[in-house]
Write a structure and sequence with these properties.
Enzyme class: hydrolase
Radius of gyration: 36 Å
Signal peptide: 1-21
Region (Disordered): 807-835
EC number: 3.4.11.-
Strand content: 15-25%
Pfam families: Peptidase_M1 (PF01433)
Number of helices: 22
Strand order of the largest sheet: 7-10-3-2-16-20-18
Distance between the termini: 76 Å
């Protein structure tokens, strides 16, 4: 029910009502949610200007690689040598270079291994909290297996030789996953240096070691010993980035924070077994050496195909899978202006492709390609390559045309990971006893979603080259926002995430840190670096800026920083500068704090203009008086019992006060109205006041004041769903700036035409702002719907002793039926123990 305020003259209400008064903020308690970010963001300079775009002296380094790699399949080992050409485009003279040695993360004594806590990501099981202590209650079989595997094998670079262009050793310093290479002479601005690195390492089993690359073994294939799929990522020593904002970005690789890299040109040669098929960053340079004439013909036909066209068919893949060879082939790939290089190889791969045309683009033809084993089945045949093309279509609308000649999806042991022009994606079909393969609806969505997400990473951060080691959200958050858009444009009947409701549980939890937290320190990377920024951008687009302003600004950011290295300040400044909207309050709340959205509508006050006319006002006052009087439970009960008052039994004692009621109209009331109007004439603003007074009475508008409380701390626009007594509805949007002076509580005046009476007000009726408590969004409050669950009690639970007795009895019964069964089990246990 909407509250009724005492009827007062509207001018007096607006000026003096305590309902409207805000608590005066003092110096000690004032909260400025709209404080500008200038004090937090780095000062604009010649490299990055105040508009959020590259400055007139922006620079970045260039690193080119020539690598020859050989896969020793039976040893599951890679041996290689690389020639690195480093171009110093900075204004600084460099006396040493820093390289990333990501494979060293897998050494037993690495910082990543030694600093992984019990129950760390992808590792051991949880513990039980006992006061201030945690008691471990389980060690998974997977973790024991991992420990044994690490004991039995040596990982990390076990060959690492660095020489200058003439083959002379260079002085180096190994620091965990980093290697400092001391130059023989300082590298001045504009100069280049060449040096060589010989390296080798044992490849990890991805199903045992949580990694972004490795091998997966298929023991049940027809070939003796089975087959493997090899995924090579973070596999070669590569340069750390040297930047204008941080100099060397040489933070230790701990596994969570990803990579900061330089663009360059690559030439690679990969020598693998002759029956392998290779998928790689770049363009194949020697197809005649590694493909059959028929396969080359199919590849050409795929350029203009209207659906995925097989280059290596399922039958050919099965034939390769069953065979074996000691011969080798060398695949050669070139890639220009990329920041990394990854590849995959296996004899199990079938390969399909389809050309994607970008008319008018610098790269008009892009070959979308998928590589997968028989385990991928129809799931991959139908959806992998199609999802690649769909991604480029959607992302091109929001950013720029895809600039590379290929975009690939490879099935392997890695669930989802991205590199320039190539992605690793995990979902597969399920094999049944009759030999058929099926996939669930969830697995279908998983494949489409992961391909969209990983291909989307080609835009962020493979082209818009943000620093993943520091700010995970700059690639994962932006990409999660866009992959949800692409998902919804694929199929609207499925939920693809990034909706405001999706982040509510995380927003109100105490297990969170600000989005602007360094990658390795994130408590829960998924909701923090992926979901929360994705939802924030969705709200910014749909609710705060609107699609036109947001899309223009986002595309401008993408265009400005294509093939360059942006920082968070560049993104924040570009979005503000290009949209023309001050968003510091938004960045501060969503990215720098752990506040959440919870705006409560705690009261609605209805106001009425006092006409001063006794013929109008006196009856209203009398009605109000009687309503209050008749609510007395005492009087109601007396009336029910038929009791009469003394006055009713003795009418002869009635006097003036009994005859003339307090709200009866008297001559004095008419004189009071005349006196009031005459008083207005003495005021210099008489004409204006008289007009306002008479117009207010004539219009008889409805005035309501809403009391809003910000319980979550995060300021957001106030979105009102209004329902009126005549059955009509409307939606009103109040900008977030309403909180700028009093961020904890505000009152808002709403005015409606004559006869328009409020029936109900709902905050955020479409759940656009991630409000964490919808129950306090209604006025009047609503009954909260729920369900009563009818259940059956769990009943008797056997004791541990009973379970033991039952097991012993079953064991004895089994021994009588099959005397050799226990012996067979014992033999198996003995063999495992001996092994």
């Amino acid at each position: 029910m909407i509250r009724l305020l005492s009827t007062l003259f509207i001018a007096v209400i607006l000026a003096n009502s305590s309902v409207l008064a805000q608590v005066e903020q003092t110096k000690g308690t004032f909260k400025d949610k709209f404080r500008q970010l200038d004090e937090i963001l780095p000062t604009p300079n010649v490299y990055r200007n105040a508009a959020g775009e590259p400055g007139h002296k922006y620079w970045q380094q260039k690193v080119d690689y020539k690598i020859k790699a050989t896969l020793l399949e039976d040893k599951r080992r890679l041996e290689a040598i690389e020639e690195i050409t480093y171009t110093n485009n900075s204004p600084d003279t460099l006396r040493y270079l820093w390289l990333q040695l990501d494979q060293n993360r897998f050494k037993k004594d690495s910082m990543a291994e030694k600093s992984t806590a019990f129950a760390g990501i992808g590792r051991r099981g949880p513990g039980t909290k006992l006061g201030n202590r945690t008691k471990a209650h389980g060690l998974s079989m997977e973790e024991i297996r991992r420990q044994q595997y690490m004991d039995d094998n040596r990982f990390g670079y076990d060959v690492l030789n660095v020489t200058d262009a003439k083959g002379n050793p260079l002085n180096v310093a190994l620091v965990g996953t980093n290697l400092r290479v001391d130059l023989k002479s300082p590298l001045k601005p504009g100069k280049k240096v060449k040096f060589n690195v010989e390296f080798a390492f044992n490849i990890v089993d991805e199903n045992i070691i949580y990694a972004r690359g490795g091998y997966e073994h298929f023991p049940n294939d027809k070939r003796e010993g089975g087959n493997d799929i090899f995924l090579f990522a973070q596999w070669f020593p590569r340069l750390h980035a040297y930047t204008d904002y941080e100099a060397w970005t040489n933070k230790e690789f701990l596994g969570r924070g990803e990579f900061t890299l330089e663009f360059g040109d690559y030439e690679l040669e990969m020598t693998v077994p002759a029956d392998h098929i290779v998928s790689s960053t770049g363009t194949l340079q020697n197809p005649k050496d590694v493909l059959t004439k028929e396969q080359m013909k199919r590849l050409k036909e795929a350029e203009t195909a209207d659906k995925p066209h097989f280059i290596v068919t399922a039958a050919e893949a099965l034939e390769n899978e069953a065979a074996g060879t000691d011969a080798v082939k060398t695949w050669k790939f070139d890639a220009d202006n990329v920041r990394d290089f990854a590849w995959a190889t296996s004899r199990k791969f079938m390969w399909d492709a389809q050309g994607y045309q970008q008319d008018g683009a610098d790269q008009e033809l892009v070959m979308a390609m998928s590589f997968y084993p028989k385990e991928g089945g129809d799931l991959w045949k139908k959806y992998s390559t199609a999802s690649i093309i769909h991604t480029m279509e959607v992302y091109g609308h929001f950013t720029f045309d895809y600039p590379y000649p290929t975009s690939q999806s490879v099935n392997g042991p890695v669930g989802g990971m991205e590199y320039p022009m190539i992605t690793f994606n995990g979902p597969r079909t399920k094999l049944h006893k009759d030999g058929t393969r099926t996939y669930s609806e969830g697995m279908k969505k998983y494949l489409i979603g992961v391909v969209i997400h990983e291909v989307g990473h080609n835009y962020f951060p493979m082209i818009v080259n943000s620093d993943e080691r520091q700010w995970t959200w700059m690639d994962e958050g932006l990409n999660s926002f866009l992959d949800a858009v692409a998902g919804r444009e694929w199929d609207t009947s499925v939920s693809w995430g990034a909706e405001p409701k999706d982040i509510v549980a995380y927003m109100k939890s105490d297990k969170q840190v600000p989005i602007m937290t360094q990658a390795d320190s994130l408590w829960r990377p998924g909701p923090n670096a992926y979901a929360k920024p994705a939802v924030a951008l969705n709200i910014l687009r749909e609710t705060i800026l609107g699609r036109e302003l947001f899309d223009f600004a986002f595309k401008e950011y993408s265009r400005r920083w294509k093939f360059k290295r942006p920082t968070p300040s560049d993104f924040f400044r570009t979005m503000e500068e290009a949209s023309g909207v001050d968003l510091d309050w938004f960045w501060r709340g969503w990215f720098y704090t752990t506040d959440h959205v919870d705006i409560s509508l705690d009261a609605v006050y209805k106001l009425r203009v006092d006409t001063k006319n006794p013929l109008v006002e006196k009856p209203v006052k009398e009605t109000e008086r009687l309503e209050k009087h008749t609510k007395s439970i005492f009087l109601k009960q007396n009336a029910k019992d038929g009791k009469k008052t003394w006055m009713e039994k003795n009418e002869d004692i009635r006097d003036f006060y009994d005859e003339v009621k307090v709200n009866d109209i008297l001559e004095a009331d008419h004189k009071a109205l005349g006196k009031y109007l005459k008083g207005l004439e003495k005021d210099k603003d008489y004409a204006w006041q008289r007009t306002v007074f008479e117009r207010a009475i004539k219009d008889n508008k409805s005035y309501y004041i809403l009391e809003l409380n910000n319980k979550g701390g995060l300021v957001m626009p106030v979105i009102l769903g209004l329902e009126f007594t005549d059955g009509s509805r409307s939606k009103d949007y109040i900008p977030a700036e309403i909180w700028r002076r009093t961020p904890d509580q505000v009152h808002k005046l709403l005015v409606f035409p004559k006869g328009k009476e409020l029936k109900q007000v709902v905050l955020d009726p479409d759940w656009e702002t991630s409000d964490t408590d919808l129950d306090n969004n209604y006025y009047p409050r609503q009954i909260i719907p729920s369900r009563v669950e009818i259940y059956k009690g769990k009943g008797y639970k056997p004791s541990r002793m009973k379970k033991w007795l039952d097991a012993e009895k079953k064991k004895a019964d089994d021994a009588k039926k099959a005397p050799t069964k226990t012996d067979k089990v014992s033999d198996k246990v003995d063999k495992v123990t001996e092994k």
